[in-house]
């Protein structure tokens, strides 16, 4: 090729290289922008879901304050309420919304926090809330319930892909010119409109997530080896005779265990993983891989299957306390009993498939961490005397059974457990069996999925 033709090609080559370089640089900038936008959107979604969680707790705490009688109990409730309200306001401020979309909601959260703080100082000094303050708390509870409902509606639209917070991020820089059905802006505006109807102020089975001891108390027996762990795991699985041990590994933690993988001997079917404690060979937890089909068992039948399963494992003094239904399975909480006292710290959860009654899961770590023979005190007051300590605002008060509840890592209290109603809500009230003090208030949440407490 002649020199003249090389000279003619040089500008072309240079242009191609420049164009390619610009294209590569543009792609890099585009990729960087996409990553930054994704990170920003994730921040918005984290803030929104945190807001939903905090408002849910605000509603529950306000409802508890309506039935709590003791100043000490009130003080604890108002302290957490103040913290949740501040956290919810911080979450709201992180969302890419104009003040006009959040002003009333932000003001409500500020008022809840301020009022809770003032009542916390009052009750910390031993002074109970007045009747007027109770009415104010009731109004706040109603308002928080409506706000909680609206936020859950937005959450459902996000989950269905009908609403995107990212649209707010793009539109907020130049102002939203229209309100489409997919714009979160219109949904928050609807909340603000609803909040205008309220006056402004001049203001999770119970104990299933109990406090655990630092060392497990429920482990008994000698240390076992891997072969023994595999044999015991097969005995712990519902229908375990049809399984073979795949592999065994060690797992450390508060409860050192062997992880045993069980596979069906036929070669087809679900796989189980069983955690067997090194000391004593107790069942720590169990998880099956089979998805449950359409329910054919009712809750009572499944509960009895769970009870019989625990008896076969040696858990004889256990009573069912609460349950939750999730799709095709039911999760039952069982608590130990000693001298007719329910030991709430000592719980085992059993998951039963509602299509055939097979036990698909067990969680016994709470029981293993806490279970031991207690020196239970004698009650100093009667159930009738404890009943008189329950808020007079509660109706249809029933119960009065003795229950041991956890209040600190190394502190448990003997109480009387009562159940009562206020409007449509049901509560569990725990009165100290020694001095009559109100120790705990839980709200019972009943839904088609089960019975839980908050």
List the helices and strands and how they pair.
Blueprint (H helix, E strand, L loop, with lengths): L2 H63 L5 H23 L5 H26 L6 H29 L5 H7 L12 H12 L30 H11 L6 E9 L5 E8 L7 E6 L5 E6 L10 H14 L5 E9 L2 E10 L2 E13 L5 E5 L1 H6 L12 H5 L7 E14 L2 E12 L2 E8 L5 E10 L2 E4 L1
**Can you tell me the residue ranges where pLDDT is under 50 for at least 5 consecutive residues?**
169-183
Judging from the principal axes of the Cα atoms, what is the shape? globular
Mean pLDDT across the residues is: 79
By DSSP, the count of extended strands is 13
Strand content: 25-35%
Structural class: alpha+beta
How much helix, percentage-wise, in residues? 40-55%
What is the N-to-C succession of helices and strands? HHHHHHHEEEEHEEEEHHEEEEE
Whole-angstrom Rg: 29 Å
| Distance, first to last CA | 85 Å
The side-by-side strand order for the widest beta sheet comes to 5-6-7-9-10-11-12-13
Question: What composes the largest sheet?
Answer: 8 strands, mixed, barrel
User: What is the subunit arrangement here?
Assistant: single chain
Describe this structure in words.
With 454 residues, the chain is of the alpha+beta class. The chain contains ten helices and 13 strands. Strand 11 and strand 12 form a beta hairpin. An eight-stranded mixed beta barrel has the order 5-6-7-9-10-11-12-13. Helix 4 (131-159) runs antiparallel to helix 6.
């Amino acid at each position: 090729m002649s020199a003249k033709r090389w000279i003619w090609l040089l500008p072309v080559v240079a242009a191609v290289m420049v164009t390619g370089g610009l294209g590569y640089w543009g792609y890099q900038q585009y990729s960087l922008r996409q990553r930054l936008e994704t990170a920003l959107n994730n921040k918005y979604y984290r803030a929104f879901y945190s807001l939903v969680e905090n408002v849910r707790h605000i509603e529950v705490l306000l409802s508890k304050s309506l039935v709590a009688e003791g100043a000490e109990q009130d003080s604890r409730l108002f302290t957490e309420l103040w913290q949740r309200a501040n956290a919810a306001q911080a979450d709201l401020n992180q969302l890419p919304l104009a003040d006009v979309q959040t002003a009333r909601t932000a003001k409500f959260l500020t008022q809840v926090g301020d009022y809770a703080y003032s009542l916390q100082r009052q009750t910390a000094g031993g002074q109970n809330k007045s009747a007027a303050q109770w009415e104010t708390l009731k109004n706040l509870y109603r308002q928080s319930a409506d706000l909680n409902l609206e936020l859950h509606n937005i959450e459902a639209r996000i989950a269905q892909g009908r609403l995107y917070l990212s649209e707010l991020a793009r539109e907020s820089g130049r102002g939203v010119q229209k309100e489409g059905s997919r714009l979160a802006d219109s949904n928050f505006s609807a909340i603000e409109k609803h909040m205008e109807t309220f006056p402004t102020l001049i203001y999770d089975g119970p104990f299933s997530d109990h406090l655990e001891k630092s060392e497990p108390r429920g482990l008994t027996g000698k240390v076992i080896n891997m072969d023994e762990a595999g044999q015991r795991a097969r005995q712990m699985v519902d229908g375990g005779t049809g399984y073979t041990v795949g592999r065994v590994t060690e797992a450390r933690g508060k409860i050192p265990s062997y992880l045993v993988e069980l596979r069906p001997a036929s070669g087809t079917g679900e796989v189980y993983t069983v955690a067997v404690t090194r000391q004593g060979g107790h069942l720590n937890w169990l998880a099956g891989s089979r998805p449950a089909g359409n329910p054919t068992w009712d809750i009572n039948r499944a509960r009895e299957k769970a009870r019989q399963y625990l008896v076969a494992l040696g858990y004889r003094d256990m009573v069912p306390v609460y349950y939750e239904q999730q799709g095709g399975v039911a999760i039952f909480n069982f608590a130990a009993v000693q001298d007719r006292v329910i030991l709430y710290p000592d719980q085992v959860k059993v998951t039963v498939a509602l299509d055939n009654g097979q036990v698909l899961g067990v969680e016994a770590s709470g029981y293993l961490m806490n279970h031991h023979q207690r020196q239970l005190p004698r009650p100093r007051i009667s159930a009738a005397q404890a009943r008189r300590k329950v808020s007079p605002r509660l109706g249809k008060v029933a119960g009065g059974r003795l229950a041991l509840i956890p209040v600190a890592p190394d502190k448990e209290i003997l109480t009387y457990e009562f159940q009562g109603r206020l409007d449509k809500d049901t509560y569990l009230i725990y009165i100290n069996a020694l001095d009559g003090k109100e120790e705990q208030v839980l709200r019972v949440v009943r839904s088609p999925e089960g019975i839980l407490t908050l």
